Amino acid sequence: MGKVFTQASVSLDGYIAGPGQTGFDRLFAWCTAGTVATPSADPDRLTYRTSEATARYLRELQEQVGACVVGRKQFDLTAGWNGRHPSGVPVFVVTHRPPPTGWTATTPFTFVEDGVEHAIARAREVAGHRDVGVGPGGTVADALRAGLLDELRMDVVPIVLGGGTPMLTGLGDAAPIGFEQAEIIEGIGVTHLIYRRATRNA
């Protein structure tokens, strides 16, 4: 069985979005800052152009991910990715509401109403030996509190947003949570940090 991970572009002060859902142009500028092309599952909509080091990082992610778990807020903000998630794999949406009226999808979307733990369990069944991506957003904190997140991937961008949506919040009594020393991959306009969950809290 694969691992459960999260990945997000994040500012130096820890935000995945600026005030009023701004700053995405700066947070994701690294995706087109280089010359090495890495197509997504929907290349007409998203093809990365990065350094070779970042391209290897992205290819590994694409090859290993087998399913995704996202929150309803992210689903709504992206308009459900117009029915096709960039990863091209089955998506499990944690929600208390039904799908939008008239909404259709070309890749499998499942709406799960009994929480992140059940969504991750269902995603792991579908993913088999491949990995499950979670979040970003509140689903990440839920997975951490439940002890289900194996790996934290932060694509750190050299900008301070000064406020907005933090990558990690709402952990409550689950913190502190220990991780091993980071694996560091330097890209153009981004530093990829890979933290693997420690065997016990630090």
Short synopsis of the structure:
The chain is α/β, with parallel strands linked by helices and 202 residues long. The protein is built from five helices and twelve strands.
SSE inventory with pairings:
Elements: E1 4-11, E2 15-17, H1 24-27, E3 36-39, E4 47-50, H2 52-64, E5 65-71, H3 72-77, E6 91-94, E7 109-112, H4 116-127, E8 131-134, H5 138-145, E9 151-157, E10 165-166, E11 183-186, E12 191-196
Parallel strand pairs: 1-8, 1-9, 5-6, 5-8, 6-7
Antiparallel strand pairs: 2-10, 3-4, 9-12, 11-12
Strands across the major sheet, in which order? Answer: 7-6-5-8-1-9-12-11
| Main structural class | alpha/beta
Order of helices and strands: EEHEEHEHEEHEHEEEE
- Give the number of DSSP strands: 12
Q: State the separation between the terminal residues, measured CA to CA.
A: 26 Å
| Parts with pLDDT < 50 across at least 5 consecutive residues | none
The biggest sheet, with number of strands, parallel, antiparallel or mixed sense and barrel status, is: 8 strands, mixed
How would you sum up the global shape? globular
**Amount of helix:** 10-25%
| Beta-strand percent range | 25-35%
Overall average residue pLDDT: 92
Specify Rg, calculated over alpha carbons: 16 Å
Please, how many helices?
5
